[in-house]
Every structure is written in C-alpha cells, then in structure tokens.
Amino acid sequence: MATSKQLQYVVDSAMAREVREGLSAMPKRLPAKLFYDEAGSALFEQITELPEYYLTRTERAIFEDYAARILEAAGPSLTLVELGAGTASKTRILIEELLQRQTRALFYPIDVSPSALNEAVRQMATQFPQLRVSPIVADYTGGVPALSRISGRKLVLYIGSSIGNFEPSQAVGILRRIRRSLRAGDALLLGTDLAKSSKILVPAYDDAQGVTAQFNKNMLVRLNRELDADFDLGAFRHVAVWNKRCSRMEMYLESTVKQSVFLPALDLDVPFEEGERLHTENSYKYTEEMVNTIVHESGFTLEKTWSDSKGWFGVHLARV
Ligand code: AVJ
C-alpha cells in the first residue's frame, strides 16, 4: 500500500505542483480538471441527468433537430475529429446522420485519458461498422499536430460547453492551436452554454439533490486519497455564484470553520478562515459577442449558430 502511494506521488507530480500552487495562492484555488477521476466522471454523468442541469439535454436536442443542417453546412465528405471524450452520446447523433450522407467515415476522438478513449472506440465501432475509429491520446489544449496529417475535409467537434472552463483568452489560444493543424475548408463545431437568468443558472450548479455539491467535494476526497490530505468534508460547503460581470458561474468550497488542513505528500499546511472560499471552477456563459470574439481572434470565420427555442445553448459552425 505504502509502495503504491509513493508511486502515485511520482506519477502525479505535475498535479501535486498545481495543488501546492493553488492552495498556497490568495485567494485559494484548485484546477477544475481535478474533478474528473473515476468517481468525479461518474458524478458528472449523474449531473447531466439532473432536472436543473439543462446543458446536456439542450445541446442534444439541438443535434437531434439540426444534425442534417449542421452536416450540410459543414460540407461534403467529412472526417470527424472530437476534442475531449465523455460526450459520446451526443456525437452519436451526428455520426448517425453522417453515415446516411456518406457510406463510410473516419472518426478521430482525442482525449488525454486512454481508458475514456477505449470505451468510446468500443461503443462506436460496434454501433457503426462503417465507421473507422482512430483514437488519438493527447492533451488537445496544447494543439494536436497529428491532425495536419489527416487528409480530406475535417469537422472538429468541440462540444459540451467544455470550452467554458477556460478563460476566454485561454479559449482563443486553444482554438488557435487547433486551427494551425487544419486546412482551408475545414470547420469547427463549437458548443457553448449561453448567458441567461441567474434563476436558471444557479440551480444548474447547485441542484436540490446535492449531486453538484458531491461533485465539487469529490475534489477534496481525491486529495485525501491521492495526497494523504485530511480535508474534513463536513467542514466545507458547496457554493455556486453567478458572476454577471465576467459572465460565468463560479464554484467554491467554503470553509464553515477556522481550520487547518495538512497534505503530507506535499508537506503543506493550509489554514482556512471561517467563511474562506476555495475556488474550484469557472463555467463561462457566452454571449453572441463573446462567441464572435473568440472565434475571430482564433482565426476562424463564424458561419452559423444553431440554438434551442429558449436560446439557452449555442452550437456554432466556424470555418478555417
Ligand atoms: C463539463 C465543463 C461543461 O461547466 O457545466 C457541471 C462541468 N460543473 N456542473 C459545466 C460542471 C458543475 C461542466 N462542463
């Protein structure tokens, strides 16, 4: 047991460094990507089914209503690329439509997690025999040079409002690096959650069943397990705030008492005041203007946006 823990410290040293930095910063923060260990990914799946969490079902409805028009607009003979896994159920709608329009297709799912990719590949390959699935293990935020070796017209899917976790300036960097591996005529399909009333937004990030609270606190569970920390889950509460000025939902873990947490793996003591907040996530809610800005600043042209009848979620087609 001690051996496997030591090994983990080495393997996750980049994570350990980020945790040290974030917990030593003022105000305190932890990176949102820490949510997605096995338990966190399962909790996120649960979130997508909550009545308050409209994002996933709204984007799915847009795909169900407009898949044919989206693919028509993207152009003939498409090769699909998907940034990030875990959105397979929505991608399937587009693939089904694609295979009505062309007899065969190539699909390149890109993810940092080989296990997530394996799962996606197995499901897709069995469901769609005419689809050739070639997974790429990569952190797409740094760009994916391998994309430039793929011939034919590409449609890059970046859906699920995944881009919402990044600052808009970081989002521009990510899109620009992706664009560098694309050619004229290739396209990007970008899914963004849209700015709306806090009456809708806050419950989506603070649901009645407390699943999002559990998802948020899972980050502490993870630090307790992986870095031997002694976070007392009962001494933190889940907080979700709408920051209108920045057009983003913010999630925090708020210390309910004055306390000190120790992380032996980092030899780090972390003092918390009563009411002090640890920032865990930003989820940007785009306005039309923000979409225009990031798409153009990253070198794409915005061709078309599809939205649901309430205007809650946007699916944007951008061209190189
Ligand atoms: C996976 C980043 C799209 O921001 O809505 C869900 C993550 N956080 N509930 C989002 C999340 C809290 C989600 N994304």
Model description:
The protein is α/β, with parallel strands linked by helices. The protein is built from ten helices and 13 strands. It has helices spanning about 1-10, 15-25, 40-45, 55-75, 90-100, 115-125, 170-180, 200-205, 210-225, 290-295; strands at about 80-85, 105-110, 130-135, 135, 155-160, 185-195, 235-245, 250-255, 260-265, 270, 275-285, 300-305, 315-320. Strands 1, 2, 3, 4, 5, 6, 12 and 13 form an eight-stranded mixed beta sheet that branches. A three-stranded antiparallel beta sheet has the order 7-8-11, with helices on one face. Strand 7 (about 235-245) and strand 8 form a beta hairpin. Helix 4 packs parallel to helix 5 (about 90-100). The N and C termini lie far apart (about 50 Å). The chain binds N,N,N-trimethyl-histidine (AVJ). N,N,N-trimethyl-histidine (AVJ) binds next to strand 11.
Write a concise keyword list for the protein shown above:
320 residues, alpha/beta, eight-stranded mixed beta sheet, three-stranded antiparallel beta sheet, 10 helices, 13 strands, 39% helix, 25% strand, binds N,N,N-trimethyl-histidine
